[in-house]
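Good morning C.,

I know you're traveling, so I'll keep this short. The sequence:
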Amino acid sequence: MRTLADAPVLDIFDQAFLNDPAAVMRPLRVTTWIVQTPIGGLVIGRAQVQALIGDRRLRSSLPDILRLQGITEGPLFDRLSSSILALEGEEHLRIRRLVNRAFTPRAVGAHRPHMRAVLDELIDPLLPTGRSELMAGLCDHYPIRVMCHVLGVPEQDHEDFASWNRAITWALSFEVGAHLDDVMWGMSQMDSYVSELTADRRRHPREDLVTALVQAREGDDRLTDLEVQTMIASLLFAGYDTTRNQLGLALWLFAQHPDQWTKLADAPDLAGRAVEEVMRFHGAVAVAPRVVAEDLEFEGYHLPAGTIVSLSTASANKDEVAYADPLTFDITVDREPHLTFGGGPHYCLGASLARAEMQEALPGLATAMPDLALDGEPTFRPPFGIFGPESLPVRFTPTR
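The C-alpha cells, ready to paste straight into the viewer:
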C-alpha cells in the first residue's frame, strides 16, 4: 500500500504550472491519479475526483487552510468554520434542508426577467463606443445586483455589498494574512447590515429570500438569527464572487474564440450548453479542497486522517477518459457533466442561480456585442482560491 510520499511531486507554485496547469497535469494523469504538492495531495484523475467528491470520509478543509496561514481562532476563524462551506454531517444537512427550496430551478426561474433587465441596463452605456473594460463595466455589477434582488436588499445598497464582498473574498485565498484587515472590515460592515435586515424581515415579511430564510421551518426546526446572518453572508459572498469571476472567464474565452461567440449569437438556445462548456473549460473554482476525516485506503494509497487532499475539478474536467478532444472549447458538443460545482453534500447550493445568471447574460451579450475581441492584455487574480480576471479590455462592433 503506497502513501502520499510515494506519489509524483507537483509544485503548484511553479511558474510553468501557473502558466498552463492543463498542460502540466495531462501527462501526469497517464501514470497517476494523485500527486503530492507543497500543501498536501491533489487528486487529478476524473474517476477518482468523481468518486471522492461525495465521499463522507473526506470533509471541508476550509478551517485547515486558515490554520496553515496562522489563523487558528478569532471571529474570522469562527465564522468560516461555522459556515455552510465548512459544516459537515447532520448539522450541514439540517441547514441545507431548511434553505434548499429557495434555490430550486423553479424558484430561481422567477428572477430571470430581472436578470435580463439588469443586463440591458448595464450594457446600454457600453455599446456606442465599441470598447469596454468588462469587469468594471459589467461583471462587477451584474451578479451582485441579481443576488441583492433575490435577497431583497434595496437597490441603493447594492454597491456597498459589492465592496464588502470584494474585501471578504480574500478569506478563501492563500493570501488572507496579508488582507486580514480588509476581510475583517468587510465582515463587520456586512454583519451589521444583515443583522438589521434580518430583524426587519421578522417584523415586516416580504416576498424575498431573507424573509424565506427567517421563516424557513422543518417541523419544529428553524434557523437561529446567527444562522440566518451567516447564511446570508455566505450567499452574498459565494453568489457574487464566483459568478463575477465565472462570467469574466466566459467573456475572456469567447473573445479568444470568435467562431463560438458568433454561434451563440446566431443560436441563443445554445446558452445552456455554452455555460456548461465555459465551466468545464475554465471554472472559476478549480479545486474542491478536502481533508481526510478518517484513515482512507483508496486505489492503492493509504491516506491517514488529517491529510489535506484537494480534488482538482479542473483536471477532471479535461481528462481524456471522459472527454474527446478536451482542450477544444466548443459550445455545440454534448459532453459529460463537469464537476466545477462540486458534488455530494457540498454540491454548490447556488448552482441553479449561477447557471440562470450566465444563461441570461451570455446570449444577450453575444447579440449586443458582435465581433468580441481582446483590446489589450487582461489582468487576473492570483491563481489560488476563486480565479478570474481583474480587468478585461475588449472591443466589438458597436450596435447603437
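Safe travels,
E.
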